[in-house]
Amino acid sequence: MRTYDxxxxxxxxxxxxxxxxxxxxxxxxxxxxxxxxTLRLERIQAAYEGLDDQRIDSxxxxxxxxxxxxxxxPGNPVPSPIPIKKKHKNPLGGGEVETRAFAARMLPPxxxxxxxxxxxxxxxxxxxxxxxxxxxxxxxxxxxxxxxPLKDEISLTH
Length: 158
Hints:
mainly beta
């Protein structure tokens, strides 16, 4: 697991788009299935929890562009007598966010799945991400949840 909260990391994953500068923290989650059973991931959930016990559920990738306000450009403080509406392109509406989101539904034995979860927050040292909702496909039993402190790159292995 890794937060993409620097310009360099954002560029490596999203090109010229940096979600973090718009208040969206991308967190790369890697799930490695080291069991001999298939895992069901269709109900996987991630939540960001701060040291202050503030819990933030992940924002669906399709909603991320709508969670961002287009920055206003400096202009004439006096309103024009004729309203002029300019269309500004949403910086996160180009598809990069959605195509890189975690989307795996099933994970065969000894395979790896990865993708981003998005949070409307800023990364602070000591915060954690909880990942839950992973089940064994055959029995339907839950795989225990993971609490991962956001310090270094970590891989979820099970």
